[in-house]
Amino acid sequence: MNRNKSFNAIKLAETVMPGGVNSPVRAFKSVGLSPIVIKRAEGSKIFDIDGNEYIDYVMSYGPMILGHSDKRVIKSITDASANGFCFGATTEAEVELAGLVTTHFPSIEMIRLVNSGTEAVMSAIRLTRGFTKRDKIIKFEGCYHGHSDSMLVKAGSGALTTSVPSSSGVTECLSKDTLVANYNDIESVKNLFLKNKGKVAAVIIEPVAANMGIVLPEKGFLKDLIDLTHENGGLIIFDEVITGFRLSLGGAQGLFNLKPDITCLGKIIGGGLPIGAFGGRKDIMEYLSPLGPVYQAGTLSGNPICVAAGIATIKAIEKDNAIDKANKNAEYLVTSLKEELKYYSDELTINHISSLLTIFFKKSPVNNFNDVMQSDTAKFKNFFGELIKEGIFTAPSQYEALFLSSVHTKEDINKTVEIIKKAIKKI
Ligand SMILES: *Cc1c(COP(=O)(O)O)cnc(C)c1O
């Protein structure tokens, strides 16, 4: 497979953009390869500027559950843009999108639209601090909540009480208010509450962790977490930026029948255009400006073109039963892989839920960040190299998911299984 044009384009990109990219994982650093540069995408396929075709399992890290370039979404975006790009005033479409989300998420009584998942989480955190008049936030090691300062913190080697910024540039003053617990370990949360009595504003969690690879919540963990948080006077935030409109129309909370105080959304609700949202209990949401004392604003918030893409995407998901289709595709992929790779069951773990999965190069179980860290990343690196060479595009990191869409075909999946099998044998 010739990738000369991509190689040269990245060389040029590196002269004007740090690392040649606008988001770090795109630089393929952890797999030591030169990245592909994309020309276009359609359905389950993505094409680079050298004309190579790949079956896509990145799916823009989540938004493209309908596959790329869905005709209905294109029409909706085109129609909206013909009416102007943004106005600095409210449109009816924003209210329609808010209605669609609140219908599917009973816990979201009121919602505010923003421009990214990062912004949704950042604003939700501020809101919970304002509402509770407390400063501290509990997050879980290995969970990603965007790149706002308070969220770029994870504990150093299991030391739960001493928070260490994991990004340079995050002040100590901020990171000391972010406490880090272990996923699937309710005792670690109890300890943090004990040591910080009356100080914790909120606990934020990915109800299914999808940013350290897929890690599922153990039975009862999320319910216990909600109860524990409420007993301690805190609020619970579900970060459903990936899981919203993917695990079910009502996200992970719909699938597990749980009710967080605040929910953060992004990715699918913009259908591939920049959007984010946070919402929840009315009494909390009314703490936001202009009604309440917590300030939050945005020139491009509720942008009509992004909103149009979101509405068209959600309606198409409903109409197509896209979630069921994507789930069936993932189920077929996982079942086939488990069958074909059974000789390697001592070296591999496939974590899977709905249309998300991760192949870890580690013996089962993978239930928390510590387990994830034991995965053999050298093997992953070789694995990724074999896949991309054969026309399979997955995230260039062990710590991401494979995303299935409703339009991946049996043919795509059969081909993928063959290539994965060959790759595993080879490495
Ligand atoms: C992607 C993601 C974010 C950040 O969203 P951006 O749109 O990239 O800012 C936040 N939380 C989770 C769970 C995510 O997967």
From TrEMBL:
Compartment(s) where it occurs, according to its Swiss-Prot or TrEMBL record: Cytoplasm
Modification type N6-(pyridoxal phosphate)lysine: residues: 267
EC number: 5.4.3.8
Coiled-coil segments on the chain, per record: none
Main location: cytoplasm
GO BP annotations, alphabetical order: protoporphyrinogen IX biosynthetic process
Pfam families, per the entry: Aminotran_3 (PF00202)
Cofactors required: pyridoxal 5'-phosphate
GO annotation, cellular component aspect: cytoplasm
Chemical reaction(s) catalysed: (S)-4-amino-5-oxopentanoate = 5-aminolevulinate
The protein's name: Glutamate-1-semialdehyde 2,1-aminomutase
Protein source organism: Candidatus Acididesulfobacter diazotrophicus
Record lineage: Bacteria, Deltaproteobacteria, Candidatus Acidulodesulfobacterales, Candidatus Acididesulfobacter
Name of the coding gene: hemL
